[in-house]
Amino acid sequence: MSVVRRWIPNQHGAWAMLVVPSLAGVLIVSPSWPQLPLFVAWLLAYCAVFHAEQWVRLRRASRNPRAAARHRRPALVLGSATTAFGLPLLVAEPWLGIAAALAAPFLAVNVLYARRNRERALVNGLAAVVPACGMLPVALRLGGGTVADGLAPAAACLLYFAGTVPYVKTMIRERNSQAYRWGSVAYHAVALVAAALLDPWLALPFAVYLARAAVLPGRGLRVPVVGAVEVGCSVLLLGFLVGVYG
């Protein structure tokens, strides 16, 4: 179990962002077998990139060379596993290379912020959201749909998960910042309008997201409770995406 804890990133907030868009892309269309290795490769790639970024960060931020070195092996092994799952899929579906190329600039931003030891920066969090939400049309097309079919639900995912970045900060690291709190509420109000324009039914979950952004900050909720609320919000989004676009 200790090996699992060392190799699997403990970034609990990232897992919903990794899983929900991909799973929505699977469920909106009829699930197909090629989506399984894509999903596995996607999760492995996240783990590999996480350890690579920690290696880059700790080489500069830590005086202990072992701190960075302990991430080298997981990065290499998990990167190799990603290749094992992803390369055959790429050969069968060459268009996936375009998707990977589109995600590369956002990955570069994440690596740059890791190198500067500023992984918690707002821009860095937002950069991570974009390729995660982009997995929805990728999974959807692999299941027989079209990229165009996935754009609206991917936009809904982007509206929600981009909002989680400032909102979570108002609950933890920036819990005393009125600027962050008002900025988060303003964003969620705009997101509610944008989601309603995508589909009127989406106004319902986004009204919930706006309410939680307005009411919960400042109430001293513990981190596990904050996480549980976001899991519930993510499941709510998944249900509406499948119901509206499926």
In short:
The protein has 246 residues and is mainly alpha-helical. The chain has 11 helices and no strands.
Helix content: over 70%
Count of the separate structural domains: 1
- In round numbers, the mean pLDDT is 92
> Which parts are unreliable, with pLDDT below 50 for 5 consecutive residues or more?
none
- The biggest beta sheet, please? none
Q: What is the number of helical segments per DSSP (H or I, 4+ residues)?
A: 11
Number of beta strands: 0
Described by its quaternary structure, the protein is single chain
Structural class: mainly alpha
State the end-to-end distance: 38 Å
What features would you highlight for this structure?
single chain, 246 residues, mainly alpha, 11 helices, 81% helix, globular, transmembrane helix, membrane, YwiC
Description:
The structure is a single chain. With 246 residues, the protein is an all-alpha fold. It has one domain. 81% of the residues lie in helices and 0% in strands. The chain is built from eleven helices and no strands. It has helices spanning 2-7, 12-28, 35-61, 65-69, 72-92, 96-115, 122-142, 147-171, 178-198, 203-215, 223-245. α2 (12-28) runs antiparallel to α3, α6 packs antiparallel against α7 (122-142) and α9 runs antiparallel to α10. It is globular, with a radius of gyration of 18 Å. The model has no long low-confidence stretch (mean pLDDT 92).
